[in-house]
Write a structure and sequence with these properties.
heterodimer; A: alpha+beta; Aldehyde Ferredoxin Oxidoreductase,  A, domain 1; Aldehyde Ferredoxin Oxidoreductase Protein, subunit A, domain 2; Aldehyde Ferredoxin Oxidoreductase Protein, subunit A, domain 3; 3 domains; six-stranded mixed β-sheet; 27 helices; globular; B: alpha+beta; Ubiquitin-like (UB roll); 3 helices; 4 strands
Chain lengths: 653, 93
């Protein structure tokens, strides 16, 4: 197995191709694992404490070895960089056809450094690469940019697939994202600001090369088996129809939404509290990412008959909202009309901006207004106009979004890095402490879901390498109370599935983080994994597909060690920039303020937080007092060289 | 004989063509309830509800909870008037 990396120095315009040798795949699997290593090596020769918006930051795109092979569960590409909004490790996955098409060019990894003197886009056409003037694209949103690039690049050797930023990225807004083919967003952590800071408007790829699979017959057999397993599970048909929106009714039942800045955990209003509208309004389906057997995506088109509010959006069409798009609008902001929720998803995608950070920032301010902690004149000071900040007022919400995207006013400037830094800055500005109303973990914006009854999820929010995150260590065992999985993973013990005790919750985070690191490195979607995480284990079942694709045949134990190695490198990155145990924490609301509705009332994080965190460090072999890695813990996963770096910088326990 | 109420959501609701139903069962167990539901709604519901390998409740992509939000298992006892909710198990997105 080998691959090619395209290095681009935007300051000089120089580009060169490098071979990524087999040994790198042996150590880092691919995808996010290799991205992490490219960034780690970069910051051995560049200042890791650099300004993330400066030319010393690096922007890496990579796609794992199962992407495009028929592995059957959707492709995910990954971007990796130092985060401008959270100032720590940053990365983000995205689907669509861009990562698929990159594999049909000569490259699977791209590493971009420096800063272009003028706006450009990077064009990769098979093995030819060029930097092209992008002044005609500057000032465009992601849909306009994608459409114009498709038109100007033609259809040979293929249609162009794009990765682009909007005006938010151009303005280096900390929570700006990168959008694939104008449809699929690499949200979280501010990759769009990094591209914007480099004057890089887009990357466009065209290719018609093939993929090399080491053992094609084995890969086909694996794919057939996977498809058969998927088809045999009746639950898949619900997944196909609803995608992640299937969570709406479950969350409404148990109390796991994030309502009005997490003052509650149930949606209010009629239709929006169920998923009836999936059938009513989602007009047609399409394949989600390339190669996916589940195809949970669909589109909507608003005809204006759906509701009074829908008349504002007649003709609007886009992907149907995912759960977190719905959770941020119907939950965090209390938007109760389906068409407005859909419109929220559309504008945050076209503006290429993270809707979790946005909704947490806006709902933070709405709560201050609701509680009369700020006056109308305070609001006018922020927005340079009257702004009601009334829950669910979509016109006001849209102005808040534009304020941030276009940096129109004080609100845009203060909250452009998300709710955590925004709340700190606003507290300083007003000379009052508003932090008890900010929802975050480790400095990252909350995912708009209720966390308090779920100790593993809460721990994930505190320790995730990119700040508040359920996708690094998704807590299926606990949230779905899967005793069967707990028994499999923990030698017959069931406590990991028991919400009432802290035992095995930190262990679950560590174990699942390792598994997720593998899936992200293979380059496949996590979604199908919810169907049968025991049957589709990344280290066993998926390990066979990885072996077929790469020829790297590992035991499940060896692959779990590979996953742990990837997680440890992300941790080491954050240790180098000074992050310690005190940073592995969550916001005051989650820690101390009990839930007062849902099936688990009275839950607070503080009940179990420290025992769970201690157990997590124990399972990782890290020092519980400082939160730092030990030499032994790093050498155990083959990272003695990383331990040397940390020791030299005083970041090793 | 006891009466147990079932609330069906999402895909379960489609398979049952209703959001609510009540079942009278002679043995007060989840297993008896599951049998009644499968009998009422046919093979697709059975495929969703029962793991064909273990004959336990299918835990893959599902969530079955009692009134306190606790997941139920085949061997659990039920009481007259209990309500069991059948949900799909999906998170995040």
């Amino acid at each position: 197995m080998e691959s090619r990396l395209l290095r681009v120095d935007l300051t000089t315009g120089k580009m060169r191709s490098e071979v990524i040798p087999h040994s790198v795949f042996e150590r880092w699997i691919g995808g996010s694992g290799i991205n992490n290593w490219i960034m780690w090596e970069h910051f051995l020769t560049h200042d890791i404490n650099c300004d993330p918006r400066g030319p010393d930051n690096i922007f890496v795109f990579g796609v794992g070895p199962l992407a495009g092979t028929g592995a059957g569960s959707g492709i995910k590409g990954r971007i990796t960089f130092k985060s401008p909004c959270y100032n720590m490790f940053g990365d983000s996955a995205g689907g669509g056809k861009f990562p698929y098409m990159l594999r049909f060019t000569a490259f699977e990894y791209i590493a971009i450094t420096g800063k272009s003197p003028k706006p450009v886009y990077l064009h990769i056409c098979n093995d030819e690469v060029s930097l092209v003037d992008a002044s005609h694209l500057w000032g465009r949103d992601t849909l306009e940019t994608h459409t114009m690039l498709r038109e100007e690049l033609g259809t040979y050797p293929s249609h162009a697939h794009t990765l682009s930023i909007s005006q938010a990225g151009e303005n280096q807004v900390g929570i700006a994202s990168v959008v694939s083919d104008a449809l699929r967003i690499h949200a979280r952590c501010g990759g769009g600001a990094v591209m914007g800071s480099k004057n890089l408007k887009a990357i466009a790829v065209q290719g018609n090369g093939g993929l090399k699979i080491q053992m094609p017959e084995e890969m086909l057999a694996w794919s057939d088996d996977f498809r058969q397993k998927i088809d045999e599970n009746e639950a898949v048909y619900g997944f196909k129809r609803r995608g992640t929106l299937g969570a709406v009714e479950m969350y409404q039942h148990i109390g796991s939404h994030f309502w009005r800045n997490n003052q509650g955990n149930m949606f209010r209003g009629g239709e929006i509290t169920s998923d009836n509208w999936v059938k009513k309004y989602h007009k047609y389906s399409e394949v989600c990412s390339s190669d996916c057997f589940i195809a949970c995506d669909a589109k909507y088109k608003i005809d204006g008959t759906e509701s009074e509010a829908a008349k504002k959006y007649i003709g609007e069409t886009f992907r149907r909202p995912e759960y977190l798009t719905t959770g941020s609008a119907a939950g965090a902001l209390d938007v109760r009309d389906w068409s407005e929720v859909a419109h929220w998803g559309k504008i945050t995608n076209d503006y290429g901006i993270d809707n979790q950070d946005l909704s947490c920032a806006i709902s933070f301010l709405m709560e201050l207004k609701q509680r009369d902690l700020i006056s109308d004149s305070d609001v006018a000071e922020l927005f340079d106009r009257e702004q009601s900040l009334r829950w669910g007022n979509m016109d006001d919400i849209e102005f808040c979004v534009e304020s941030i995207v276009f940096q129109k006013n004080l609100f845009g400037k203060i909250f452009g890095d998300g709710p955590y830094l925004g709340a700190i800055r606003y507290s300083e500005l007003k000379g009052q402490n508003f932090m008890k109303y900010a929802t975050y973990g480790k400095g990252g914006a909350s995912f708009t879901e209720e966390m308090r009854p779920f100790p593993t999820w809460m721990n994930n929010m505190a320790v995730a390498s990119r700040g508040a995150d359920h996708l690094k260590g998704i807590g299926l065992i606990e949230k779905f109370q899967r005793k069967d999985l707990s028994k499999i993973y923990f030698d017959g013990r069931t406590e990991a599935a028991d919400l009432s005790v802290p035992t095995l919750k930190g262990a679950s985070t560590a174990l699942i983080e390792n598994q997720v690191a593998l899936l992200n490195s293979y380059g496949v979607c996590l979604f199908h994994w919810m169907l049968d995480p025991a049957g589709y284990t990344p280290q066993d079942y998926y390990g066979k597909a990885y072996a077929a694709a790469t020829g790297i045949d590992r035991t499940p134990d060896e692959l779990m060690l590979d996953g742990a190695r990837i997680c440890n490198l992300e941790k080491a990155f954050n240790s180098r920039i000074g992050m310690r145990r005190e940073h592995d924490t969550v916001c005051e609301r989650w820690m101390w303020e009990p839930t007062d509705e849902g099936m688990y009332p009275g839950s607070v994080a503080a009940e179990m937080f420290n025992p769970v965190l201690d157990e997590y460090y124990e399972w990782r072999g890290w020092d519980k007092d400082s939160g730092l890695q030990t030499r032994k813990s790093l050498e155990d996963v083959g990272l003695g060289d990383v331990a040397d770096v940390l020791e030299n910088e005083g970041s090793l326990a | 004989m006891i009466t147990v109420h079932a609330n069906f959501h999402s895909h379960f609701k489609e398979l049952a063509s209703t959001g609510e139903a009540s079942f009278q069962i002679e043995t007060p167990t989840v297993e008896a309830l599951a049998e009644s539901i499968c009998e009422a709604y046919g093979p697709k519901m059975e495929a969703m509800l029962i793991d064909p390998d273990t004959h336990e409740l299918n835990e893959r992509g599902t969530m079955f909870v009692d009134a306190k939000g606790m997941r139920i298992s085949m061997g659990d006892q039920l009481s007259d008037g209990d309500t069991i909710t059948f949900l799909v198990g999906i998170a995040g997105g």
